[in-house]
Amino acid sequence: RPARGISPGNIDPMVHGGGSPTYRDPVTRRGSALTSLLCALALTALTVSIAPSGQAQPAAVGSPAAAPRVINGDTGVAGQFPYLVPLLDARTYAKEGAFQAQFCGGTLTTPTTVVTAAHCVVAEESGEVTDPSDILIGFGHDLKSPGLRVVAVSAVTPSPAYQRRSAINDVAVLTLAEPVTDVPTLLPLSPEEAAAYLTPGAVLQVAGWGNVSTDGRQFPAIFKVGNLVLFPDSTCGGGESFVLNGVKFLGFGPGDADVASMLCAAGTTAAGKRVDSCQGDSGGPVIAGTGAAARLIGIVSWGEACASDYPGVYTRVPAEYSFLAEQGAATAKPPTVAPAITVTPASGAIDVSFTAAADGGVVATFAATALDPVTGVATNCFATPAPGKSTATCSIVGLANGTAYQVTGFSGSPLGNSPVTAAVAATPVPVPVAGDIRRAKMLGGGKVRFTVTASQDNGAALTANRVVCQVPRSDRGVKAGAITDGVANLTGMRAIKYVCFVQAANEFGTDSSDAVIVKVRR
Ligand code: ARG
Fold first, then answer.
1. What digits encode the pLDDT tens for the residues 445-459?
2. Quick check: CB of 214 below 6 Å from ligand 1?
3. Which residue in 4, 199, 305, 447 is a FRET match for 98, CA 20 to 30 A apart?
4. What span, in angstroms and rounded, lies between the C-alpha atoms of 418 and 367?
5. What pLDDT, on a 0 to 100 scale, did the predictor assign at position 473?
6. Against a cut of 0.70, is the pTM above it?
7. Contacts for 42-50 with beta carbons within 8 Å, 24 or more apart?
8. Which atom of ligand 1 lies at the shortest distance from residue 307's CA?
């Protein structure tokens, strides 16, 4: 990887000197034409003639002032984004190791497919496609670790719709020579899910081993993570600018960015520095959603220099979904790991909350079962996570108080179900159900009259039934008044905002109603 050895200041004049907003450089990596030979292996002879190896060039006019430096990202940790892979030049890998050989990023989307950018594997000038034998896929977060695993590639398939000049449909699928079944995969975002994820301002992350310097070359051994925000489509082909945390970003015009196949995104640090991907990050993932709801939504494609006035531009994954599906790179798989469950006993019921495992599987429905070990009767509940969410809750009802049930759960999908969780014991008890506040009437002089619906004792006499008010987000200023005949009078209330709720208790437990906000007027 020649780029690593070259002193900073060797800046591609095409990128920095030619700094017109319309210039795009999907192929150039490492901030230099020189390095495109790594980005597109087939370009070697050509790029060497443009920028002879090791020849330092003066910083070009128009290069950005030294800016602190994925640019302004955080260092990744082992196990974070396990599906993020470095693409390695096989020849360089054999001679110099993974750190020198890394030229792009990619995402393991199924056990046999890595999704990357087409410009990582198609020569910009000739259109020649890199031979599979020239690429190895790394597995691990640290390019300098002797434990980094490498897997061979059996096929390189750029999208037939990829346009080299405009970088439209910048996507390719690399088929692995052997399946990698022990690394979690990341599902590409489907067109059906797109609306739920691609709202302007959505929180995104980009990760890669690319340049961390805006004015030179500095490459990390451990990948960097940049926190980004999805820009409105108007900035991504509509030419509109966008202000993020007080930092102004210019937009790309219709001649620059094609919003149908591209996404624009950038970030800012707390200190107001711009966060962006950079040369060497190409092909790597932009991720939205967390845990089991995480999806591959973008692929690092191009930008105007790095962390400049412009956002980074990413391949819009749902727009490439049919290509990915055809290549077997977007096959949804069933959940393979049981969800985490927490159970809360109620009266005649058990509430269950689920969190899906982040195993790359798609969860359609969670199911929970309460088994009465004596009678063998099983009672179920089902919960569907909202789009983009990996959690949900349901209540198993119709249970007997005092019976110790064994509760289990699993994640289900039409493709198959996860294993069942270990059983958790739960005994429904006749805890009360608190009534609700219907009305709060200001009586003046710090007195407020609450009208509430009846609390249910579920067969065990209430030991407390009252309205409680407190200062929001604290336990201070607590006022309480007992409920008699559906009415509670609270006195000594100050002219401030309170959160108020009904609290009912019996020997089995305490329940609180939903809180209402009460503004006290004198
Ligand atoms: N084309 C670059 C590569 O091959 C990625 C550039 C991303 N640039 C940006 N400013 N976001 O690595």
1. 899 999 999 999 999
2. no
3. 305
4. 10
5. 81
6. yes
7. 42/122, 42/123, 42/126, 42/128, 42/129, 42/130, 43/123, 43/124, 43/125, 43/126, 46/123, 46/125, 46/126
8. 10
